[in-house]
Each structure stands twice: as C-alpha cells, then as structure tokens.
Amino acid sequence: MSRLQVVSGKGGTGKTTVAAALALALATAGKRTLLVEVEGRQGIAQLFETEALPYEERKIAVAPGGGEVYALAIDPELALLDYLQMFYKLGGAGRALKKLGAIDFATTIAPGVRDVLLTGKACEAVRRKDRAGRFVYDYVVMDAPPTGRITRFLNVNDEVAGLARIGPIHNQAQAVMRVLKSRETAVHLVTLLEEMPVQETADGIAELRAAGLPVGRVMVNMVRPEVLDAEDLERVRTLPRASLARALSAAGLGGARRGGHAERLVDPLLDQAGQYAARYELEQEQRAVLGELDLPLHELPLLIEGMDLAGLYELATELRKQGIA
Ligand SMILES: Nc1ncnc2c1ncn2[C@@H]1O[C@H](COP(=O)(O)OP(=O)(O)OP(=O)(O)O)[C@@H](O)[C@H]1O
Ligand SMILES: [Mg+2]
C-alpha cells in the first residue's frame, strides 16, 4: 500500500469527503495518518466539524481501533517562508521578503513554485521519521486539485524546469518527483456514475499515465442503492396492469374499499419504475466504461441524510470492508 495517497476527481464529486474517509480507514490498528489540504478552503475542518485548521499538523480524529488522523491545511505563503527558512536560514529576512511582495510573486505569480511547495510539504511528511527511525505518519492522504489540474500539479518537475534549472528549488522539485513517481505514491480518482465525471476520469487516467504518475484506484462516490435489479425491471416491463392493480389491492394499498383505488396507483408506480429503469441503464453503462479502465474500483454509497461526522465514519468502514486498508 502506497504511503502517499493522492485523491483527485472532477469538482464536486467528493474528493474532500473521500480523502477524509480514506484517512480514517487507513488509520486502523494504531496507525497514524495525515490528511493534507492544499486548496486552502478549510473543507477538512468543516467535514470534521472543527474550527479552521492553522498551518500546523493537528490531531482531528481517532479511528476505531485506536488509530489517529492528523490534518494539515497547507498555506502556500507560510510553506514558502518555511522553505526559505530551511534552505537559507532567513529568519527575520523572511518577513522582509513578505513585505517586499516576493512571496506574492512566488505563490501567486509563479504557480510552479507554489506547487513545488505544496507537494514538497506532503512529501516531507511522507518521509519524516522520529528519533527511533520510524515513520511519523504511516500514510499521508492528500485532498488534491481536481482532475483537470492534477497532472500539472503533480508534475512539478516540468513546471519548475523553466524557473530553476539548478539550486535548491530545482533539487527540491527533483526530490518531490522521486516520491511522486515511485510506488510510494498512488493517485486515486473520485467519480460519480454519470457520463461527464466518468469521461473526465478516463481522460485523467490517460494523462497521469502519460506523465509517468502512478494511478491507484477509482472511487465511485454517491452510489444510489439498488432498488430493483435487471430481473425485477424486466418483470415490471412485462407485468399486465391488471395484475399489478390486483397485487396492490391485495397488499392493502389504495384503500380497503372493494374495488379500491389501487388502479389509480398503477400509472404513477409504473412511471417511477420507468424512470428508475432509465437511470439504472445509464449507471450500468458507466460501470461498464469504468470496468474497462482495468483499475481497482470501489463504490461508496450516497448518504441520504447528508454528510456528517457519523457518515464519514460510515464511508471509512465501507472502504475498509472493500479492502482499502
Ligand atoms: N457519499 C456521499 N453521500 C452524500 N453526500 C456526499 C457524499 N460524498 C460527498 N457528499 C457531499 O457532496 C458535496 C461535495 O463533496 P466534497 O466537498 O467532498 O466534493 P469535492 O470534490 O471535494 O468538491 P470541490 O471540487 O468543491 O472541492 C458535499 O456537500 C458533501 O457533503
Ligand atoms: Mg474539496
């Protein structure tokens, strides 16, 4: 199992949610995971129902079995100061740089440098060891940018090549790429059972592979429960209306009055079944497309009551059941 797990996917498909559930799932049996947010939107804090995360690793959850989840919202400006401090021992000069706007330059004008800092911070956490020589985090899970930007984001080497051909930024980028392109890393893509996100997933995988980045698993999120299967749907299609009305009546639906109102329920019911059948077919088509990708597939249920902390643990349990950890 790769120690750096990157979660991408089309916007709004559940990247943040799945990354958080994955971090919980991997924190089994006393393991420690770090959940990293790079887009500065405090999605993790919201999900875990805690206050906004500072640029500091903090424990935000305990997993069943005693594992721990830490979280970090990486602030690119502070990461740059960190970085300058590490390489140049700048101290107060860092603050002067900030006043001069050099940090704005590096973090907003030169996005390549920004991405090196973000990925660099995650890779540093992956490699960090304690005094006894053990890894501080068993796993690092990154809530990463969406599919459309993920390859470029992770391919920091290419990005900085034009900016820094030698020197510490260059070396940092090389070190980051060594981790990102190795088996230590897996990039997962979250999708829904809908045409657009599935297409984006297929394109994203091709792009990641072309860049030599390791693709992990496909996580199908918000999967609706199967109410009727193909056999049931066939039965609905061929069932005579009269016998449906009789069956409803016999089940006590449509009123107890002789003759009842069961007949009136037949059309709405068949209408609903028809809609369900159409959706079922579309979903099966998308499942088939995903099947062709030849990657491990996981399905996570749509939580109808909406997402909360309990729901998050539910999704983590589901991932564990499906052999993610
Ligand atoms: N399995 C699920 N069941 C129900 N609701 C879900 C599920 N997964 C995610 N959601 C909800 O869907 C919405 C989008 O999820 P999330 O924020 O994780 O997506 P995202 O891909 O990170 O979005 P963005 O692209 O904006 O970062 C949220 O409101 C979240 O609570
Ligand atoms: Mg998100």
TrEMBL record:
Q: Write down the PANTHER family for this protein, in alphabetical order.
A: ARSENICAL PUMP-DRIVING ATPASE ARSENITE-TRANSLOCATING ATPASE, ATPASE RV3679-RELATED
What domain of life does the native source organism fall in? Bacteria
From which lineage does this chain's organism come? Bacteria, Bacillati, Actinomycetota, Actinomycetes, Kitasatosporales
Designated name of the protein: ATPase
The species this protein was found in: Streptomyces griseoviridis
InterPro entries assigned: ArsA/GET3_ATPase-like, ATPase_ArsA/GET3, P-loop_NTPase
**Ranges of residues in domain ArsA/GET3 Anion-transporting ATPase-like:** 5-180
Q: Which GO terms describe its molecular function?
A: ATP binding; ATP hydrolysis activity
* A Pfam family annotated for this UniProt entry: ArsA_ATPase
